[in-house]
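User: Some background: our group keeps a shared notebook of sequences we're curious about, and every so often someone picks one and asks for a predicted structure to add to the entry. Today it's my turn. The entry only has the sequence so far, pasted here. Could you supply the structure so I can complete it?
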Amino acid sequence: MSAQLLKQFISSLQQDVQRLDQLSQLLDQQYELMSRRSTEQLEQLNQHTLQLMAALELNHAERDQLLQQFGLQHNRDGMHSLVRRLPASVQQGTRQLLQELTLKARLCHAQNEKSGKLLASQRQLMQKLTGMHSRTSYPAMPL
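Assistant: Of course. Here's the predicted structure to add to the notebook entry:
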C-alpha cells in the first residue's frame, strides 16, 4: 500500500468532514430562508450548496478509485478492510474520521428531510389557498 495514496485517502476523509460541516450550516440557512420565503437569497444559497455537494461527490468517487487501487471493493466492506490494514498509529484516527463522516452525513440528511417537509407543507397550503387540491403539477401551457 502506497503511503502517498493512504495520505490522499485520509486527507479526502478530512476534507469531507469539513465540507459536511459547511453543508450542515447551509442547510440550516436554507431552512430559515425557506421559512421566510426569501427566494433571491435562497437561489444564491442553493447554488453554493450544489457546488459543495458536487465537491463531496467528486471526493467520494476519488476515494472509490483509491480503494480499487488498493485492490479493495469500493463499499463499506472495502473501507473497513482498508482501516484494518492501516498501521495501528493511524487506525484509530481513521476510524474516528469515518464515524464523524457518517454522523455528519446523517445529520445533513435529517436537515434536508426537515426542509423537504417544510416545502411540502408550504405547497399544501398554497394548493388549499389557490383551490388546486387535485393537481400535482402545473397546468399545461399552450405553445
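Suggested note for the entry: The mean pLDDT is 89. The CA atoms of residues 91 and 103 lie 18 Å apart.
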